[in-house]
Amino acid sequence: MTLPPVHQLVPSVVPGDATTGHTLQLQRLLRERGHPSEVFASAVHPDLEDRVRLLHELRGPSRPDRFLIYQLSSPSPMADWLIGRREHIAVDYHNLTPARFFRRWDRGTLLALRSAQVQVTQLGRLAELGIGDSRFNVDDLRQRGWSHTAVAPVLVDFADFDVEPDAALAAALARRRSAPRWAGVGTRWLFVGALAPHKA
Fold first, then answer.
1. Do 30 and 68 form a contact (C-beta atoms < 8 A)?
2. Structural contact between residues 37 and 5, judged by C-beta atoms closer than 8 angstroms
3. Mean pLDDT for the chain overall
4. Dmax of the chain from CA atoms?
5. What per-residue confidence (pLDDT) applies to 45?
6. Residue 11, pLDDT score
7. Where would you tag: which of 10, 13, 43, 99 has the fewest CB atoms within 10 A of its CB?
8. How many CB atoms lie within 10 A of CB 91?
9. What is the CB neighbour count within 10 angstroms for residue 60?
């Protein structure tokens, strides 16, 4: 028996990004279960060009025999395009930063996030299922009118982290740690995430 295609849509694909990693892991699982599955994006990092196709390759008439999963984590015109489709649609909701955090800092981001919040509500009338990474995300969908929801945590392949550190960078950090101003300081962690006012 031939299983139906289950394709994923994600606005951008970037190495090291949690949504990208989740999308690629889900594609692997779908293919292992026999579904034809491609990832379509509007923007693709060069390192992942061989694993992802551009959205324009999916354009054309809707196909009711096909399933689409939209990975929603940021504002994107892709959501508006999806609203006009007639495939079976599910949305994997990774949540949106509340727009209010950008009111004093970045009007463009503020307006984009407000638009994305409207898209989430509109997709709730169209999609057959809303998937949240957590109960918190599912509660957010339900508050926006979604009735069919499920919790499914983010997929992570820990083998992606089994790499040797860059020798030159490790040596440079070791030299820096031996400097007098770092004397007596314990373990230091560096986390690089989104640059946003509410993250200080």
1. no
2. yes
3. 89
4. 68
5. 96
6. 94
7. 43
8. 27
9. 7
